[in-house]
Amino acid sequence: MLKKYRLLLACLIMTLSVTLFSCSGTSDSNSNPDPMIPETLQVTVIGTLPHDTSAYTQGLEIHDGILWESTGLYGYSTLRKLNPSNGSILETYPLPDTLFGEGITIVNDKIYQLTWQSGLVLEWDLQNPVLQVSDTIETNGWGICSVSSSTVVTSNGTATLSFRDITTFDTLQTISVNIDGGPVNQLNELEYAGGYIYANKYYSNYIYRIDPATGNVTALIDASSLLGSNWINPGVLNGIAWDPEREAFLLTGKNWPTIFIVTL
Ligand SMILES: [Ca+2]
């Protein structure tokens, strides 16, 4: 008889626990939805281009029907001119062995290329690319994009983006990129399209869509589906270029075999 009561008691406790747990779960999922948490967008691949697996991609940009790429590492850094129709390399412009290439952007027929730790901003004439030093910056160079004919935005591996005057590279203002108030660190390659700054976070397969006025992340773009499971040592996603003709993004990464043409 005692056994029977014990069994009954155990059943009652279990039923009560399940009910409480269930109520608690329901309550959590229905209360306090946070409107500040941005939506997550998936990428849809609409085409691919081959990509040089020796390219340690640091920046990607399309300008007047040409795809430009910056590659990094000491002794291997380059500026490259690519055919956006088939991915072929049209020209390669090597950097001195002492410089580590980073992001690029094109403004007023000049290609601006950041370098990692030298503080030097490199400038190339678009029609006849010859290396010159344009300016210096006071921080590491990671990513760069242009938001107007007079202003570029740079990243340096933190959550801060700096808006700079194109003629001096002096900082005009900074924004702190955040999701619901929390900083998004290690911002790297940048792209400006449709009024938003797009940035990828180092070692992440997410691209962040950022409101340039506030630094708020308005959407997360999940690019993890692009990584091939059979790739040998795939590097991180680090190339974002908006293609106005295709109305699509070109995405690639360090030493990836493929440039993906994607819509969101
Ligand atoms: Ca870019």
Report helical residue fraction: 10-25%
Cα-based radius of gyration, to the nearest Å:
24 Å
Strand content: over 45%
- Sheet with the most strands, sense and barrel status: 5 strands, mixed
Number of domain modules: 1
Counted by DSSP, the helix tally is 1
**Distinct compounds present:** calcium ion
Strand order of the largest sheet: 1-20-19-18-17
Topology:
Layout: H1 2-30, E1 39-42, E2 44-50, E3 57-63, E4 66-71, E5 78-82, E6 89-94, E7 101-107, E8 110-115, E9 120-125, E10 132-136, E11 144-146, E12 151-155, E13 160-165, E14 171-176, E15 178-179, E16 182-183, E17 187-193, E18 196-201, E19 206-210, E20 217-222, E21 237-243, E22 248-253, E23 258-263
Parallel strand pairs: 1-20
Antiparallel strand pairs: 2-23, 3-4, 4-5, 5-6, 7-8, 8-9, 9-10, 11-12, 12-13, 13-14, 15-16, 17-18, 18-19, 19-20, 21-22, 22-23
The structure holds calcium ion (CA).
The site of calcium ion has 9 residues, from strand 3, strand 17 and strand 21.
Notable characteristics:
264 residues, mainly beta, Neuraminidase, five-stranded mixed beta sheet, four-stranded antiparallel beta sheet, 1 helix, 48% strand, disordered N terminus, binds calcium ion
Tell me what the structure shows:
By secondary structure, the chain is mainly beta. It has 1 helix and 23 strands. Strand 19 and strand 20 form a beta hairpin. The longest helix is centred in the first third of the chain and has 29 residues, at 2-30. The model is unreliable at 1-5 and 7-33 (pLDDT under 50). Bound molecules: calcium ion. Calcium ion (CA) is lined by residues 59-61, 145, 189-191, 240-241.
